[in-house]
TrEMBL record:
<dbReference type="InterPro" id="IPR027417">
    <property type="entry name" value="P-loop_NTPase"/>
</dbReference>
<keyword id="KW-0479">Metal-binding</keyword>
<protein>
    <recommendedName>
        <fullName>Probable GTP-binding protein EngB</fullName>
    </recommendedName>
</protein>
<keyword id="KW-0132">Cell division</keyword>
<dbReference type="InterPro" id="IPR019987">
    <property type="entry name" value="GTP-bd_ribosome_bio_YsxC"/>
</dbReference>
<keyword id="KW-0717">Septation</keyword>
<keyword id="KW-0342">GTP-binding</keyword>
<keyword id="KW-0460">Magnesium</keyword>
<dbReference type="InterPro" id="IPR006073">
    <property type="entry name" value="GTP-bd"/>
</dbReference>
<feature type="domain" description="EngB-type G">
    <location>
        <begin position="22"/>
        <end position="195"/>
    </location>
</feature>
<comment type="similarity">
    <text>Belongs to the TRAFAC class TrmE-Era-EngA-EngB-Septin-like GTPase superfamily. EngB GTPase family.</text>
</comment>
<dbReference type="InterPro" id="IPR030393">
    <property type="entry name" value="G_ENGB_dom"/>
</dbReference>
<keyword id="KW-0547">Nucleotide-binding</keyword>
<dbReference type="Pfam" id="PF01926">
    <property type="entry name" value="MMR_HSR1"/>
</dbReference>
<comment type="function">
    <text>Necessary for normal cell division and for the maintenance of normal septation.</text>
</comment>
<keyword id="KW-0131">Cell cycle</keyword>
Length: 195
């Protein structure tokens, strides 16, 4: 996929602020410090369009990025940040749920996890939630450059077991830094966008 143009299109906490058009969207869910922004930036060859932060839990809004004027990546608020208050966590949950429930443009929700660590119970909950909305259940396992390629399979199996994934091919190791499997991910995304 050749990226000619990419921009932040909208920042939203509710439906009134969502872009009002028919463009298809692929959304990304994941824990606060899992590298969603870095993943988005590496996929669209931009250094810092999606804002990365040293402080986990920074994304508290839904951020819509328009690509080639033809589709959007949607960065959902990160979950699982320990310092956030209970009310704040509930608010993020509502923001995500409203988007997942009501958004007609949404084609797929991708779960982003860190390949080095076993997914948390919150990741499992999020994954089951994604599946319950009828989405495929694709998982991008980031930071694959931080472990040797020989260990990928072991870590992918841990993710598969924890998230109760039937098809191991739904888990794609990825590196934002080294662009490992970038073409493979684009192939998957193009398939989704053409549906």
């Amino acid at each position: 996929m050749k990226i000619i143009k990419s921009d932040l299109h909208a920042i939203a906490v509710g439906p009134k602020q969502y872009p009002q058009d028919e463009l298809p969207e692929i959304a990304f869910a994941g824990r606060s410090n899992v590298g969603k922004s870095s993943f988005i930036n590496s996929m669209i060859d931009r250094a810092n369009l999606a804002r990365t932060s040293g402080k986990p839990g920074k994304t508290r809004t839904i951020n819509f990025y328009i690509i080639n004027d033809s589709f959007r990546f949607v960065d959902l608020p990160g979950y699982g940040y320990a310092i956030a208050s209970k009310t704040e966590k509930e608010k993020w949950g509502e923001i995500i749920e409203r988007y997942l429930t009501d958004r007609k443009n949404l084609k797929e929700v991708i779960l982003i996890v860190d390949i080095r660590h076993e997914p948390t119970d919150q990741d499992l909950m999020m994954y089951q939630w994604i599946k319950s909305f009828g989405y495929t259940g694709i998982v991008i396992a980031t930071k694959a450059d931080k472990i040797s390629k020989g260990n990928w399979q072991k870590h992918v199996n841990i993710i598969k077991k924890k998230l109760e994934i039937k098809d191991i091919n739904l888990i794609i190791p990825y590196s934002s830094e080294k662009k490992i499997n970038k073409d493979k991910v684009w192939e998957v995304f193009q398939g989704i966008l053409q549906q």
